[in-house]
Input
Amino acid sequence: MEQRKWWQDGVVYQIYPRSFCDSNGDGYGDIPGIISKLDKLQDLGIDAIWLSPVYKSPQVDNGYDIADYKAIDPMFGTMEDFDNLLAEAKARGIRIIMDLVINHTSDQHEWFQKSRRREKGYEDYYIWSDKPNNWGGFFGGGAWDFDEVRGQYYLHLFAKEQPDLNWRNPKIMEEVQEILRFWLDKGVAGFRCDVINIIWKNDLENGVPSPILAGLKHYHSTPGCHAILRRLRRDVLDKYDAYTVGETVFVNEQQGRELCEPHRKELDEIFSFEHMETEQIGVKWFKHSFKPEKFFRSIAKWQHALTWNANYFENHDQPRSVSRFGDDGEYHNKSAKMLATMLLTLKGTPYIYEGQEIGMTNFDFTSMDELQDVESHNIYGIAKKLPLSEAYRWKMIKTSSRDNARQGVQWDSSPNGGFTSGTPWLAVNRNYETINYAAQELDPDSILNYYKAMLRFRRENEVLRRGGFNERLIKGNVFVYEREYEGKKLTVLLNFSAKAEKVPFKGRQAFGNYEKKEFVGILAPWEGAIIEEG
Ligand code: TEU
Output
C-alpha cells in the first residue's frame, strides 16, 4: 500500500501576504508580519500555509504578475526573511506551499523585455502574432495587445501586463524546472499552481464568438497541459515528494479526474470551481441569488468524482463565505461555525483562508474609488458602456469583487484592526471593532475557538480524515451526509437558514455549534451538528 501523505490528514491555511499583517507600518502586509503570527496559526491547528505570491512583482495583479521568480518583492521583505519564515514555520510543524504562476509572467520580467527586443534565444518565450485572434481575456476585454517595441501583438489571458508564456518553446520547461528546484531545495513542501489547466494553447484559431472568454476551448485542459504536468512531476516534483494543488478553472468532473487522479501522476489535488458558481445565473456579476440545494448537489457530486478533494469556500478571489453562503448579520456567529463544520468534515484537504476563522465579512466600501482590484476596475469599465443603472453596476461589483476578501486581517480593536500602524493599502473593514482575533481569543463562544476545537476534533477523528462520503439528505436549506471509515460512522447535519428544520435523524451529538448531548431531529437556525446515529 502507498504511504499516506501529510496532506491527506492535514489542513492548509492560505495567506494573502499583502493583507495579512504589516510589521513595518508601510501599509502592506509582509513576511516578518507572517512570522509574528505563526504561534497563533500553530495554536489554530493548521499543518501548512499556502503563500500567495511573494515574488518580485510590479503588483499590477497583486503579485500574480511575477518579474523575478527567484527573488522576494521588497514590499514583503528579503530572501533572508523568507528563509526565516520557512525555518520558524518548520519549528512549529507547519509546511510552506508556494504559489506557482506559470501561465504568464509580468511584462517587466526580463524574459519579456528580451523577447520584445527579439534578443537571441528569447524570441519565442511568449506568444507573438502579427494578427490577433478574437479571444477574450479573464479580466474582460480582448486577450491581445500590440507591443510597439517588437511591432507585434502578444497574448495575455489576464491583465495586459501579464503576457502568456509560450510553452511550445522547450526553454520554458527548462526555466520552470529550475524555478521549482530553487524553492524545493530551500525546503518548501509544494506548489499551488495558478490557472494551470490553461497553460497550453492548442492553436491560435478564432474561438466561437461569445461575450465572455471566446477562445476558451482552444486552451482549456488540453493534452499539452497534461503532458507538461506529467513532465514536471516526473522530472522534479516526485524527487522531492512535493505536493501540488492546481487551480483549475471551468473543469467538469471528467476533466478534474484527468488532472488529479493518482494514477495520472499529474496534480495531487485540484480546486474546482463549480460549487463557487452555483449562485450564478448567466454571468455571475449580474445576479446574486444563493440556492443552497444547488450548492449541496455540486459539493456531493465532486465528493464522489475525485479520490481526494481540495475543499474551500474562500480564497483571495472570492467574496467572504459568511456573507455569501451564511448570514453576516444576526446569525454571524452561528452561520460561520456551521460553515466551518461543513468545511472541516468533507472528504479531502480543507483550505482555510485568512480571516475565515474569525468570520470576516465582505467589504463595506461605498464607491469604486475605495477598490483596488484590477479585475473589478476592468469589469466596472466594461459595465459602464452597457445600459445598466449605476445601482446595478455597484451591486454587481459588491457581490463579486475580489477586494471583498482582500481587506487587512482584523487582529484587534486598535486602529485599522491592528493590521498596520500606517495607512493600509486597502481600507480595513469598519467592523474590526466587533470582529477581531484578540476579542475572539478571549471569548469561549467565538468562531475562532470553534475552529480550534473543530480542528482538534478532526485531527483526533479517523472517520473525518479518512472516511468515505455519502449524502443522506439534500432538501432546501438542509444538507445531511455521512462519513464512514472501517465500520465507524459520523453523520453531519447542516441547516443553511434561520428557520428550524425537522430532519429524520437522531443520535448522540459528537460535535456542533449548539451545545447538546442528544440530537433529537430538529435543526436549529444555522445549526451544524456531527452525530453518531442511533
Ligand atoms: O485566478 C484565476 C481566475 O480564474 C480568477 O482570476 C477569476 O478570473 C476570478 O476569480 C473571477 O472573479 C488566478 C489567481 O488566483 C488570481 O488572483 C489571479 O489574478 C489570476 O489567476 C491571474 O494570475
